[in-house]
Amino acid sequence: MGEKVNDNINGTGDYKAGDREGRPYYIGWVITVVIAFLIVIPVRRFCIESYRISTNAMEEALHQGDYILVNKLPIEGNPGRNKVVLFTSPLLKDTVSNPLFLSRCIGMPGDTILVSGDGYEVNGKLLPHSPRALNTCFITQKSAADFLKALQKLNIPVRDWKSETFGFSFSLTTFEEYQLREELTEEMNIHFIRNQAVPYKLVVPRKGRAYRLDEAALTACKEAILAEAGEKAVFRDGKLYLDGRETTFFFFGQDYYWMLSDNVNESVDSRHLGFIPHDHIIGNAWLCWFSRDKQRIFKPVN
């Protein structure tokens, strides 16, 4: 007896619009897509996800328009000290829109931070500004022409150049400022000034530890305390009241972080948002996978 020939096969041995079991050919593709979907969604949700940079808050570490991969894995060092971190706003008014921000993690839970014009002093150890951090500087009208020639000679771009009453303000990275001061004469350096920030000192809240509330801490912790204590917390006359009783201490239920952007003049970070709670951290920026600057493609984010 001869073998029965499957009706789905023609004389040349090619399949028709079905497989050996008589199912439509697209069923296999549907199964493949569903499996891929079930894999991709958890990876994006819990492991690694791509984001596009829409601000210049982290110039020059990252440019507006860059695409980065963010490591979301809940491992030690994520978030990490001095790492570029993606997080959501902790402000109560932002709970609906949940905007994203990207800054550098300067303070870890329990750290004591002194912020000054020289950089960041963390637990008594100086952490200098990132070489790519942007600073606002000023040059007098008398030296502006020669200063612009020095910029051109060193191939330093003219950023945020603005006319002021007695001269011009502009932005430079820390490394570019160093290059310029080496190039300029002593007389010109007198007319080249960096804007000095007002120093401040803070302790970053740590889970389960008593946190002393002075004036600076109350300002930085207000949103965090309201989020944790809810209606029990009332701020009045520069003081905190819990259940109607004045208190100078607070026990936080989770760890917090202090974020500062490299481009402090064009960014929103902990100076505006306060301490960033752990449950608002998305993860460390890991890799730049696309940029208009080809030299940055597939380079780690530092």
Rg from Cα: 28 Å
Largest β sheet strand count, sense and barrel closure: 8 strands, antiparallel
Judged by helices, strands and strand pairing, the structural class is alpha+beta
Give the N-to-C terminal Cα separation: 74 Å
List strands and helices in order, with pairings:
Elements: H1 26-46, E1 48-52, E2 67-71, E3 84-88, E4 100-107, E5 112-116, E6 119-122, E7 125-128, E8 134-140, H2 144-153, E9 159-163, E10 167-173, H3 174-183, H4 186-190, E11 192-194, E12 200-203, E13 210-212, H5 215-229, E14 233-236, E15 239-242, E16 245-247, E17 249-251, E18 256-260, H6 270-273, E19 276-277, E20 281-290, E21 299-300
Antiparallel strand pairs: 1-2, 2-20, 3-4, 3-20, 4-18, 5-6, 5-12, 6-7, 8-10, 8-11, 9-10, 13-17, 14-15, 15-16, 18-19, 20-21
